[in-house]
Amino acid sequence: MLAVPVxxxxxxxxxxLPVDPAVLGGRVRPQLIKQAVVAFLxxxxxxxxxxxxxxxxxxxxxxLYRQKGTGNARAGMIRTPVRRxxxxxxxxxxxxxxxxxxxxxxxxxxxSAVLARIQANDVIIIDGxxxxxxxTKVVASMFSTLGIHNGCVLALHEHDDCVYRxxxxxxxxxxxxxxxxxxxEVMLRPKLLFTRPAFERLTGQPSARRDAGEHK
Length: 216
Description:
It contains 7 helices and 6 strands, in the order ββααβαβαβαβαα. By secondary structure, the protein is α/β, with parallel strands linked by helices. The chain has 2 domains: about 1-45 and about 100-215, Ribosomal protein L4/L1 (Ribosomal Protein L4, Chain: A), CATH 3.40.1370; about 50-95, no CATH class. Helix 3 (about 135-145) crosses helix 4 and helix 6 (about 195-205) crosses helix 7. The longest helix is centred in the middle third of the chain and has 17 residues, at about 105-120. The two termini are about 30 Å apart.
């Protein structure tokens, strides 16, 4: 059984939350995490590159001059890649084939990444995170008291416009809904923060399931 420290907004540890590794896949799968990161970055590419090949360039297919007798080097049509203004020999085209990454694999990779961060003592749970007004100073002060100076990922259980606007301008900081987390974002920053309801939802704690039932 693992334990994740729980802090309040003032940086004081108020307890620990036990976590069974079985709910996060039981063990860390480095190869699956790498596959998820590569797939995420691959899907994020814009895929808008398009260059003209020989068949796309305007120009005749006629041979420029006869093969022998002119004293010039042999030449074919004007659209050849070796001539100025010709098409590219191996021009890029879209759409590009992208490897599929099923939902169950994405979820297992995310859980495996979270388990790896817990084992490395890089996960912190924030209990009672709230902002009365959007002020960057509030969230920045909380990070400072927690000893977070090189960036983090903060996972929320639901969208909070006040918290989001308070933390969005802090350098190297990402705010995400826990349901939208992926393995790449989990491994992106030195620290991973969860609100308590977000962590309970991720690990399937009874309180999180009860809250979800009440919202329905």
